[in-house]
Write a structure and sequence with these properties.
By secondary structure, the protein is α+β, with helices and mostly antiparallel strands. It has 17 helices and eight strands. Strands 1, 2, 3, 4, 5 and 6 form a six-stranded mixed β-sheet that branches. It has a two-stranded antiparallel ribbon with strand order 7-8.
């Protein structure tokens, strides 16, 4: 078969099994794999809960076959052709013997395979499906997965994609798949609708821009962290929590006083009404609670290796920038945007991260804190534990972009 680079571990294992004539091993791989079926976008828009594989004639077997691709072999997204998720047992359940004689997996590639469709073969497929780990289809979650062919491994696009790698690793997707299909057109649209309220191109563009400008993350969290950064610069060293609390309260009171001072405008002198003392003191009390939460999370971060030594979180904007990198890809998978738009947004996300942080570890701590502040509520439950696992994978896996891409 000559020299050939498998796009991912899935295709490499299929290639090796086919070359060795190991058909049981090949079926084991396919039983674990996420298969994607080419579809007309117009058909899926009209029938969002249906998948209708097309019959295609293949001279290799002198017969028609249904087509399915593994994740690493999908072409770049185009407006009209989309892909929807399937699996080996789905084909076994949905297609009776005689309708179409073959399932063509990755046709036109060095390891294309034509699987006969019959009751006996369907029973064999299900046997291999039952051997896979429970509820496991696709790439393993909480592991670093990369495309070694068809995905950037160096340069600004790769860097921007790596800035969103927390969510790629957590979901078991290729961190560097710019030409993104995800779990298929229908599920990508459903994810954006249910988790983000995004149902149109305009909404996707607006949400992507908000994330790229850190307009979604809480400004209260960011304000508290920036007060500490200023103190650390001023005093050239660690900032005690009580000093941080006091400086934050003083800054809020001073801001409230300045806001009440007379101002010269084109219409003359404007006198602002002073803010009620109770309102200002309420904000101070709220920020003190935020500081307490941040300090407790950082203490746990140090125990679990997310922060080292006397390091602290400089900013939570990574929570937005990392999601912006992902949102750019999600919109492409849902066909709200083009590949070119996705690439521009990913590069912008990387540039924003470089301005806000000084290392992958700093970025990671900011992302994890933002996620925990939004979802975990100091329970240190799965929202926290999942991200600690992902952080460790990204900082230690030899194939991780954080290991292979320099920050500077």
């Amino acid at each position: 078969m000559g020299t050939w680079t498998a796009p991912s571990v899935i295709e490499r294992e299929l290639h090796e099994a086919r070359a060795a004539g190991n058909w049981p091993g090949l079926l084991d791989v396919l039983a674990r794999a996420r298969l994607l079926v080419p579809q007309s976008r117009a058909f899926l828009d009209a029938h969002p809960t249906r998948v209708r594989p097309e019959r295609t004639w293949f001279p290799q077997v002198q017969a028609h076959a249904y087509i399915a691709f593994t994740e690493g072999m999908l072409p770049a997204p185009t407006p009209d052709l989309v892909f929807d998720i399937a699996s080996l047992d789905w084909f076994a359940d949905c297609y009776p013997s005689g309708a179409v004689p073959y399932l063509a997996v990755n046709p036109g590639t060095p390891f294309e395979v034509f699987l006969p469709i019959s009751p006996a073969h369907a029973a064999s497929w299900k046997f291999h499906v039952e051997r896979r780990p429970r509820d496991y289809t696709g790439l393993e979650r909480d592991k670093v997965h990369a495309l070694h062919l068809g995905g950037p491994l160096r340069g600004p696009v790769a860097f921007g994609l790596a800035c969103g790698a927390h969510l790629s690793v957590r979901s078991g997707t290729f961190w560097n798949a710019l030409a993104y299909h995800g779990q298929g057109y229908s599920l990508e649209r459903e994810k954006l609708r249910e988790s983000w309220g995004v149902t149109t191109r305009e909404e996707w563009l607006g949400m992507t821009e908000r994330l790229l400008t850190a307009d979604v993350v809480s400004p209260v969290w960011e304000f508290a962290l920036r007060v500490r950064v200023a103190l650390a610069k001023e005093f050239a060293g660690p900032v005690d929590v009580e000093h941080w609390r006091h400086a934050t309260a003083s800054t809020l009171r001073a801001n409230a006083e300045r806001a009440a001072e007379p101002r010269l405008t084109p219409d003359g002198v404007t006198v602002a009404r002073p803010r009620p003392t109770a309102e200002v003191e309420g904000e101070i009390a709220g920020l003190q609670r935020v500081i307490g939460r941040i300090a407790r999370y950082e203490q746990r971060f140090r125990a679990d290796g997310v922060l080292s030594g006397g390091a602290y979180v400089r900013s939570v904007e990574a929570w937005d920038f990392g999601r912006a990198s992902q949102m750019a890809r999600w919109g492409l998978g849902a066909r709200f945007g083009s590949l070119e738009e996705t690439e521009r947004a990913v590069v912008r996300a990387g540039k924003a991260c470089r301005l806000a942080y000084r290392s992958w570890e700093e970025l990671s701590a900011g992302f994890v804190l933002g996620r925990c502040m939004q979802f975990d509520e100091e329970e240190f439950g799965h929202w926290y534990a999942d991200m600690v696992t992902v952080h460790r994978e990204l900082t230690n896996d030899p194939g991780s972009p954080w290991v292979n891409l320099p920050w500077g």
